[in-house]
Amino acid sequence: MSIDSPSRDQTHSPGDGPHDSPEKVDGRERLGVWLFIGADVVTVGALLFTYLYLRAVDTAGHWMNMWGYQGSLHTYQYWANAAANGTLKNPTLIHVGTVSAGLQWLVAAITVLSALLLWVGEKGLRANKNAKSFSATAVVAALLPVVGIIFTAVLLKDLPQIFVSINDSNTMSYTTYDSAMMALLSSTIFHLVILTFLGLGLSIRAARGVVSGDRWYQVRLVRMFWVWVALSSVVATLITTTITSTH
Amino acid sequence: MTTTLEHATTMAQPKGGGLARHQNFATAIVAGVVLAWVGWFLGRHLFWNGSDNWSDQVTILTLLGWMLGFWIGIGAFNAPFQWLLGRDNTRADNLYYAGDKQGRMRYWKFTTDHKVVGVQYIIVTMGLLAVGGILAMAIRTELITPGTHFVNQQVYNSFIAIHGMVMILALIVAVAGPWGNFVMPIMIGARDMAFPRLNALSLWTLVSAATVLVGTLAVGGLPVGWVVLGTIANQAGPGMDFFAVAIVIFTVSTTVASVNLITTVITMRTRGMTLDRLPIFVWGTIITAALALYAFPFFFVAEANQIFDRTASTSFYVAAGGGTSWLQANLFWLMGHPEVYVILIPAVAALFEISSTMARKPVFSYRTAVGAMVVLAGLSAVVWAHHMFTAGWAPSLSGPFMVTTELISIPTGIFFLVLVGTLWRGNVWMKLPTVWMFGFIFNFIVGGVTGIYLSDVPLDEQLHGTMFVTAHFHYIFVGSVLFGAIAALAYWFPKVSGRYLNEFLGRLSFWLVFSGVQLTFGAMFLSGLKGMPRRDASYSFAFEHTNFISTIGAYMIMSGMLVLLGAVITSWRSGEPSGPNPWRANTLEWQVPTPPPLENFDVLPVITEDPYHFDETTVNA
Amino acid sequence: METSAKKSLRSFYWTWVILTAVGVGLSLWLPRRYMPAAMSNDAHLTMTTMILFSICAAPVASGVYAGALHVLRHHRYRGDGVPPPAPQIRESTKLLTSWITASAILTVFVLVWGLGALAAENGSSSSNPLVVNVTGQQWVWTFSYPGTHVVSDELYLPENREVEFRVTSLDVTHGFWLVNMGVQVDANPDVITTIHTTPDKLGVFEVRCEQFCGLNHAFMDAVGYVVTPQKFSSWLSAQPARA
Asked: Are strands A3-4 and B606-607 parallel, antiparallel or unpaired?
């Protein structure tokens, strides 16, 4: 490999501070964020694949129906005792029904709203160079996902567990629909927690002057990921609210 | 993430001592143990102990405590929280965290220098190979005669699963880990990786995952096979929780590493390092990284579902609840087949590099070779169901998946053409890397040809699930990938240590391992043809002779590997000094001093042609 | 110079031819020596395919081996120190296209053969197959014959009649493998999978589990018999009825 004599900007001794311009570093970090988003696309895709696959096979009609006794996590002990005492009558066919579509759409809407808010904040920061007002916008954008987390937790809590007692083996079980929903809702919470962390970080950094009208690159990085999360929540909600029953 | 700040604070002095500067492997273990205990304690009291999920819930919480504590203890969370609070590192801080002036201690810390990470990867790979190798010896010892004597069935079943997964992990990182980190950034003329902290993160998340995976042995093992098919995994004890957590964290490690490798190659190449001048090993690394980025999230979801099943009463893989292990099989193999090429491609790409240097000739058909790797990576994403030909899952898809699978033989064939074509009419320098490369060529043909049998559905309906399959992929993993990894080790060892890997011991090791592979897996083909199933702790007398030969061969492989270990240790301490460019290669990693200084280059080189032109000036350069 | 290069090339071709001959010999000998006795149409097809693919692979593998050996013999640098530069050959369109064409032709051949064999295995030739229900559980196989009361842990099959196996499992996934018949399919809980085969040779054969299924997986096997149709019906009627 032939090597020419270097131009001046290629010479740099380690003690001289950063090697690359902020623009160059930003380009690098943007690619990194795109790649992480790519991996996340596959992850969310695999969760939706799980959902659709279980619905398609509907083994033994268990997508939303199960023979058993309806209970919840907190009453497991009650059911187990009942089973032990032999007081359980024949199991009934329980239809679990779908998770509230309205609440799912509400969470998606909150996520989209927070993404838009951050985007507007970013535009404002770049145009007006007002870090203080951006900091306020970012903190609101960061708190919206917290609301989303609360609603998602409500959805998770409302998934009905079914007590199954076959011969001597007693178990709590979710239908496959509820299982797939549990994984998707957990993924939603995980993403919203990250958004909260990132939003708070931007807000604090803007308040401390680390993020400012001239140094706004990280806002764009966060916004890229934020928009992807909003998009994925819309797509996932669209699928889980329209493609539900197997009949 | 810090550079924007650095302009403002270039002159700031390094922040005083601080806890962050005293974090190392020991503090990581202490914090991990403490938080594991906290997790265990909380788990025992938070969850109702009458539930049949209780022990799994406690186990998972304990393991999450261990992971969290380990990462806090090693310092993985420092940077995110500094970022949150707006207190970014100064440049002096960054130099400190890159291990500047810290001697050997830097190998035990969350060090960001890519060369330190590379060496750490060598150590982790050797550790994993040692664990997997010892288990392999136990397995072969059990199989030396029919019946069970050495270990009981339960232990044997655990060993095959843990041997399988540990070795898969070891081979995934065996080439791309050490050399993708140590030499790749220098090869493209970069001062470090694009995201040095993510680099350290990928290494230490791997270490935390590996400890949990090996820890499986301490909690009753994993007697369910390494594929951990959904239905049988539900019968496993806490070992299954260990496995699932280890895999979830491992996928995080590979994702972080892949993002870093790709970004580094795309954005950090020095001036003049155009894509068609890129050393071919660099191509191999980023194609692999792209494939890993696509594949491993499926594994993440497969094992996350498993954790839900075990702790939260879901029914993903529980047939009684409407789940199906075909879902697990699909997710597993959506990862599992691309993963095979994640393992293979870096080894092949390293051999392309080695063949050119050693034959004093350019890589033959450089562009076609790169194209073959890309096509292979692409095809590998659409062949996963060939692992499920006999699962009964979707018989109508057998034909299409057979087509995609067999098309793979075309790019694989090109690998041979490129390797032999590069050596052809060369002046082949028979040093240690070359010797292992010839071993690779021999074994890879055997592994490749037998793969064609297995891709044929009617043949697979006889050979699937037999020792034939085991022999096939061991010819690929041991005979080919491990040989390629050792060739790469022998080739780049002088760059890491400044010394040659001992030629005599290296060759002794080669002959032991090479003959061992032929005996072990050659005889294993015959066992499989005769109809011996895989994963059996015992077998009928019909398979007696071939199994005896396999075991003897396995002992030879082990002794060869021990000789190699001896060679690495003695050569690292007192081998023959090599100078900065012992092979007179043209790629950039050989143009910097040995050991390469922090940040590699004082002056970034400007590239005017690819590294594969050899003339008289390169002989004595 | 020219002639010695030609000479060494000629030795390359000879090595190739000899190795190919050895490979073809092995292809004809090894499968027949080591594979279990074929007792069904599928097993015969398996054997033929095995031999055919091996013969196809022989020239390819031998070509690479002959090339590697040629390099070892004629292009090894035997001097001291760093070898001098070799001819800087970067491409050979002719070699590349012929290599890719050859491997593509072989692949297409293997594919066409494989798809044909697959169709032959899947195609149901008989309108009246004997149905056998197969149930796997840790760690035994049970066979029942619908329309009769027969439940057995040994598998009896009549000669020359297509059999349809309907396979399921009571617990974990098992692998139902008729070793001498060349067919296998997984036994999954709550799912029925089917395979067909036509036994065409009298004798004893092995039934094994080939999917890892827990503690006693290694011992999960059963004995099968292919008998004449007359013997088969007398065996059926001699079995005690089990509920």
From this structure: antiparallel
Nearest to B160 by CA among B138, B128, B127, B144: B138
Q: Please, what sign has the CA dihedral across residues B119, B121, B127, B130?
A: negative
Length of chain C: 243
* Residue of chain B with shortest Cα separation from C46: B459
Whole-number pLDDT of residue B230: 79
Point out the residues of chain B with pLDDT beneath 70.
1-17, 617-621
Q: Is C77 on the interface with B (CB under 8 A)?
A: yes
pLDDT in tens, B294-319: 999 999 999 999 999 999 889 899 88
Q: Which CATH architecture has domain A25-54+71-242?
A: Up-down Bundle (1.20)
Has residue C91 been placed in a domain?
no
Decide if C189 contacts B231 (C-beta within 8 A).
yes
Same domain, C110 and C221: no
Pairing of strands A3-4, A65-71: unpaired
Lookup: tokens for B51? 């539930």
Tell me if residue B364 falls in helix, strand or coil.
Answer: coil
pLDDT of residue C80: 87
ipTM confidence: 0.94
Question: Phi, psi at residue C163, to the nearest 5°?
Answer: -115, 135
pLDDT digits (tens, 9 = 90+) for B554-567: 999 999 999 999 99
Domain that holds residue C150: 130-238
Check CB contact of C203 with chain B, cutoff 8 Å.
Answer: no
Domain segments of chain A as ranges: 25-54+71-242
Mean pLDDT over all residues of chain C? 90
The whole-angstrom separation of Cα A180 and Cα C48 is 46
CATH 1.20.210.10 is the classification of domain B116-619: yes
Task: Tell me the chain C residues in contact with residue A59 when contact means C-beta distances shorter than 8 Å.
Answer: 190-191
Q: Are A135 and A142 in contact (CB under 8 A)?
A: no
Q: Are A96 and A162 in contact (CB under 8 A)?
A: yes
